Structure formats: structure tokens, C-alpha cells
Backbone:
């Protein structure tokens, strides 16, 4: 099995549109959550959302390319090209059979709505135009990136609800570990529009802490009342470690372990056993023991039930002395399909810049989170071995272990 | 509408839709090779022309034979004149 290096990262999120901007926001403990008056007008129970600022798709792709790409696919392209630039890979290296694409994504809602509206208006399919068939597919990210970047290896999208991004990184790493790809451009992306969120809002799972949007997402806090939806795109360049070293690349970190499990239980209520098992297996696969992990980048989304399950699972694996724990969703909201991948990008930013980002809005623990060592403010120390948790509807869990040289 | 006005509107609409340099919009240019359109662009080309001239283009033989920008000019001018002919 080959070791897997991280050599490039890119991010477009509600915390900023570059690694530098996002790094500053993470260190400050800034929030990207806003009140969206349109959602209130439309009858949403919660009008809160993450918001991406000043991202103009036309800076990155042509009018023709925009036709086949929803905004989150363009964001994925922007993040991926940033990651490639950081990795210092040449077009020849990218445009080879050794380079693959694996992204996590589980919807493309607006294109589906628009195509039906166009048919209703014009009464003939011809008027839908050429782009919607591509925009409306869940695999729109990898199909478009493949055409734009000319990669010739793996090209597919993983859909597993809110663990899509985590599984995408894990399976991309597996392709390299098994020697089937030399490098994989991977990540996750999430649409941020109200259309894709209205049915989720119907479940009363979103926070209605409206007085101060920045305080609405409060994972692990006793007063948490639900998640805040968010999105954007996170991308990484993963490479065979020996090849990356050989070409003199700056190795930012390693995907050291990956494991998965599923609960086999309820469609929306997470079980404890599944996540616990995935955490243990991921640490095992990294040839580490729980005591080696010094930071857990938690999945916790700020829902009462989900956070409690993760707290108890962490306690079961780590015992009474847990590593530092923070859920970055306190700042970003829940980036859903993207979140498992953005956690890896955020952790890599922290390792490079020598800090652990805080779990903001954590003012009072509940019975379960009281047992965790939650970083309520920025920790001025780089993480060395990180466990990233992600979990999705249907009880699908993805855990990754990342290692960074001090 | 004069034939010149029709041709100008065709060129403006196509150049705008497909981000083509207006200087390149000369009648002898082939759509696929010279103007670098592809089969997906032809789907949108039909919509652009229908919206600009407010007529419907069926899958007529004439459109299947279109190769150059000049062929589009002739097709639209003929179609426009037919439609404007007094019954």
C-alpha cells in the first residue's frame, strides 16, 4: 500500500474564497452565517444560511462552460485550480491517465426546477437548451472538471448525504494507496440556494436562533436548537507520497487512515455504534491508537440528537481524556455534501498556520459534551494527528485520520 | 426589416451567445471549424434565432444543410421574407 500525501488545497466557503481568507477567519473564530430575507418571505421556518460573498463564476469559466455548470460546480473548479496551483503540478501531469477526479455531491436542485419551468412555459423540450441535462446531474462536478482539466483517470461522484465529501477523500486516497492512481483531485461541493433547502427546513431541523445569526450554529452547546445550512466547495490534490517527494513537492500532510461504517438503523436518527466503529477503524488503519490523536474535527452540526450521539461516541473511543474537539460548523454552518472534504481542507490550513480553530458559541456544555475537551477558543498549537468525522442520512459514516509533520 | 438588418441581428445574436469576436463573423466562416461551435451549441443556436426573429424553426431540411454563417443568413432572410409575404 502506498502512502498518500496532501500537496494542494483550495476552498470557496462562507468564510472566504481563498485559503488565506479562510485561514484568517478560522483563526479569528468568524461566522459566515446570515439572515436571508427571501427565505423568510417564502415561508421558511428558519431563514438562516451560510452565504458566499463576491464569487463571480465568470471570472473562472466562459459563458458556454457556465451553461453546463451550476454555481457550486464552478466553485469546485475554482477550488481545484487553486489546489493544483499550490501543488505545482504541470498540465501534462494533470492531463494523464494517472490523474483522477472523485468528488462528493448529492444534489443539483435548481437545474431540475429550471428545466421543468422552461418546458411548462414554452411547451417544447427544445427550449430547455443544451446545458440543463448536464447541470442537473449529481455528477455535474466531476463531468465538468474532467472536460475542463482534461484528466484521463477516475472520474466519478460519490453520493452519501452529509458524508459524501468524507467518503470522496477516503476513496480517492484508497485509489492512490492501491496503486490505481498516482494523484486524485478530490473534494466536495454543496449548493447553497433556498430551493435545495426547503424540504430540509420542513423537518424542523434548522436553528431558529434568529436574534443573532452568528450565534445560531452552536454545536455541543446546551442551548443548540438545530443546524444552519451552508455550502461552497472544498478541493484537495492527493498524491502518492513517494512520487510527491520525488518531484520535490511541498507535502502539506498525509491521509493516514480512512474507515467507514453504516448504522443499519434509522433514516435520519444517527446511531452511536456506527460512528464509534468508523472512528476506531480509521485510527487502526492509520497504525495509531486513540491517545495519538490530538485534535478531533467533529461532525457535530448543532442538532440536539446528532451532537449528543457524537459526544457519547467520542467518549466511548477516547475515554475521559479526549483530544481537543471542535466543530467548525459553529462558524460555517453545515456544509452538507461538502463538509467531510472541507474539514480536511480546514484542518490542513490549521496545521500549516499553527492553530486549532475554535468551536465558537460553546458557552455551556450538556451532560454529554461536558466529557469532551472542547476548544471554545483558538488553541495556539498545530494539530499533528487529526480525526475528521462525518455522518449522513441513512446512517452512513466516514472517518479520516490526517497526519501533519510538526 | 431589410436584409442587412436581418444579417446584423443574426451576427450580433450569435456573437453574443457564443462569445465570438464580432470581427470573425463573416459569411464564409464554417460553424464547427472556424467559429468553433459544437453540436450542443447548435441546440442553443436554434433558440437564439427563434427568440431574435420570433419564428419557429422546425427540423427542416434547410437547417440540416447549414454549414457556414452565410448559410444561416440565407436561411433566416428566406424564412423572414416568406413569413412577411402578404397572404
Residues:
Amino acid at each position: 500500500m502506498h502512502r498518500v500525501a496532501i500537496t494542494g488545497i483550495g476552498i470557496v466557503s462562507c468564510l472566504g474564497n481563498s485559503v488565506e481568507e479562510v485561514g484568517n477567519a478560522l483563526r479569528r473564530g468568524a461566522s459566515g452565517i446570515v439572515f436571508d430575507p427571501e427565505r423568510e418571505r417564502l415561508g421558511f421556518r428558519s431563514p438562516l444560511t451560510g452565504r458566499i460573498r463576491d464569487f463571480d463564476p465568470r471570472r473562472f469559466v466562459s459563458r458556454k462552460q457556465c451553461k453546463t455548470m451550476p454555481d457550486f460546480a464552478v466553485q469546485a473548479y475554482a477550488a481545484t485550480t487553486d489546489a493544483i496551483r499550490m501543488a505545482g503540478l504541470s498540465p501534462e501531469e494533470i492531463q494523464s491517465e494517472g490523474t483522477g477526479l472523485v468528488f462528493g455531491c448529492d444534489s443539483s436542485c435548481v437545474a431540475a426546477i429550471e428545466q421543468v419551468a422552461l418546458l411548462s412555459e414554452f411547451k417544447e423540450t427544445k427550449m430547455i437548451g443544451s446545458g440543463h441535462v448536464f447541470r442537473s446531474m449529481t455528477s455535474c462536478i466531476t463531468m465538468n472538471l474532467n472536460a475542463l482539466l482534461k484528466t484521463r483517470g477516475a472520474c466519478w461522484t460519490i453520493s452519501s448525504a452529509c458524508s459524501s465529501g468524507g467518503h470522496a477523500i477516503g476513496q480517492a486516497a484508497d485509489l492512490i494507496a492501491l496503486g490505481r492512481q498516482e494523484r486524485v483531485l478530490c473534494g466536495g461541493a454543496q449548493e447553497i440556494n433556498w430551493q435545495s433547502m426547503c424540504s430540509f427546513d420542513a423537518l424542523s431541523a434548522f436553528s431558529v436562533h434568529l436574534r443573532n445569526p452568528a450565534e445560531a450554529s452552536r454545536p455541543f452547546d446546551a442551548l443548540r436548537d438545530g443546524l444552519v445550512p451552508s455550502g461552497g466547495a472544498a478541493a484537495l490534490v492527493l498524491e502518492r507520497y513517494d512520487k510527491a517527494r520525488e518531484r520535490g513537492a511541498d507535502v502539506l500532510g498525509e491521509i493516514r487512515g480512512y474507515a467507514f461504517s453504516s448504522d443499519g438503523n434509522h433514516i435520519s436518527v444517527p446511531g452511536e455504534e456506527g460512528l464509534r466503529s468508523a472512528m476506531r477503524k480509521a485510527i487502526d488503519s492509520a497504525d495509531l491508537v486513540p491517545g495519538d490523536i490530538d485534535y478531533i474535527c467533529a461532525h457535530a452540526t448543532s442538532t440536539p440528537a446528532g451532537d449528543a450521539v457524537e459526544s457519547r461516541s467520542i467518549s466511548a473511543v477516547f475515554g475521559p481524556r479526549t483530544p481537543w474537539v471542535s466543530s467548525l460548523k459553529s462558524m460555517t454552518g453545515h456544509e452538507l455534501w461538502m463538509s467531510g472534504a472541507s474539514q480536511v481542507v480546514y484542518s490542513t490550513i490549521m496545521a500549516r498556520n499553527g492553530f486549532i480553530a475554535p468551536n465558537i458559541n460553546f458557552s455551556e456544555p450538556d451532560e454529554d459534551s461536558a466529557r469532551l475537551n472542547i476548544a471554545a477558543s483558538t488553541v495556539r498549537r498545530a494539530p499533528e494527528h487529526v480525526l475528521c468525522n462525518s455522518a449522513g442520512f441513512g446512517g452512513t459514516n466516514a472517518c479520516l485520520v490526517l497526519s501533519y509533520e510538526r | 426589416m431589410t436584409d442587412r438588418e436581418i444579417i446584423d441581428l443574426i451576427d450580433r445574436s450569435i456573437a453574443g451567445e457564443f462569445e465570438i469576436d464580432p470581427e470573425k463573423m463573416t459569411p464564409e466562416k464554417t460553424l464547427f471549424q472556424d467559429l468553433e461551435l459544437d453540436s450542443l451549441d447548435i441546440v442553443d443556436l436554434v433558440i437564439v434565432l427563434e427568440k431574435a426573429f420570433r419564428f419557429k424553426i422546425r427540423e427542416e431540411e434547410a437547417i440540416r444543410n447549414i454549414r457556414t454563417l452565410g448559410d444561416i443568413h440565407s436561411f433566416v432572410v428566406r424564412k423572414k421574407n416568406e413569413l412577411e409575404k402578404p397572404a
